[in-house]
Amino acid sequence: xxxxxxxxxxxxxxxxxxxxxxxxxxxxxxxxxxxxxxxxxxxxxxxxxxxxxxxxxxxxxxxxxxxxxxxxxxxxxxxxxxxxxxxxxxxxxxxxxxxxxxxxxxxxxxxxxxxxxxxxxxxxxxxxxxxxxxxxxxxxxxxxxxxxxxxxxxxxxxxxxxxxxxxxxxxxxxxxxxxxxxxxxxxxxxxxxxxxxxxxxxxxxxxxxxxxxxxxxxxxxxxxxxxxxxxxxxxxxxxxxxxxxxxxxxxxxxxxxxxxxxxxxxxxxxxxxxxxxxxxxxxxxxxxxxxxxxxxxxxxxxxxxxxxxxxxxxxxxxxxxxxxxxxxxxxxxxxxxxxxxxxxxxxxxxxxxxxxxxxxxxxxxxxxxxxxxxxxxxxxxxxxxxx
Length: 387
Fold this sequence. Notes:
The protein has 387 residues and is mainly alpha-helical. The protein is 58% helix and 7% strand. Strand 6 (318-322) and strand 7 (328-331) form a beta hairpin. Helix 2 runs parallel beside helix 3, helix 5 (239-252) packs parallel to helix 9 and helix 8 runs antiparallel to helix 9 (361-379).
């Protein structure tokens, strides 16, 4: 109940409690059976009645004026209360709007903070992945250099061992050679295979000097090599390596077992091929004809096994392993010579790519031509007798 309405009710009750002047009171009844007798009004009573009637009219008018006044005051009070309530509602609306804006601002700041945190976390993850990839790349390069140095050390040990006072190695002692054979090529004399055994065998072979009088630089091949030398890479897209793949590497590694040939080429490119000698007694003994073995007429027993690349029964004294696989494949001397020739070529161009070969461009070109010559001879079936 509003305040104005309560005041109005209180005023109405107060007016009801006041006696009304001029109200007629009932007369006492007479005895049963007797007639009521009305006294005739006198002049005095008439004057008093008129006075009472005027007083009653005056009271009614006062009551009406009081009621109108109360209504007006109540209406004004109600308007004031309504105006006050509207102001309070307006203030509450303004406060709600302000709080809503504050909430929206906080939500926006929270979203921005969350986005920045996620972006920073992704940035840290990308940097960590980049550093990890760079570290793994450096580790692979370091392992490759270690393997290369181990192969060179093994080859040098073999050269030193093969040089004795009774039979000195003329490569290690050039003063023992005749003046006509004392001219050797400078720089990288012989590239090693990826396997230690293959490197030792290849390094033990004497390198015949090549006279520059019988050599002539091919302008097209030399231009392709110079273009490759500016930014050396093992990508086949360069014209220099594309030509060598088509003319030498592909034919040299094209064996009867094509699927295994592709795996071997991939292992040579990735420098994960291993060649190692095997003990003769570990191979199965198969009786074959002497003609098949390439021996004299007649039949004899020879320790042979089937070559994994050619599929022919040959005296396989070496086996290969691809990467970290535990599978070994026995190969014939001819296949071994072809694989070794390709390995020598790839090892030398890796040296150039890593900046280990510090020679004149023409000398590097002739070394590559020599390695291509070895691949061409090996793919035709020629190989040293000691293999």
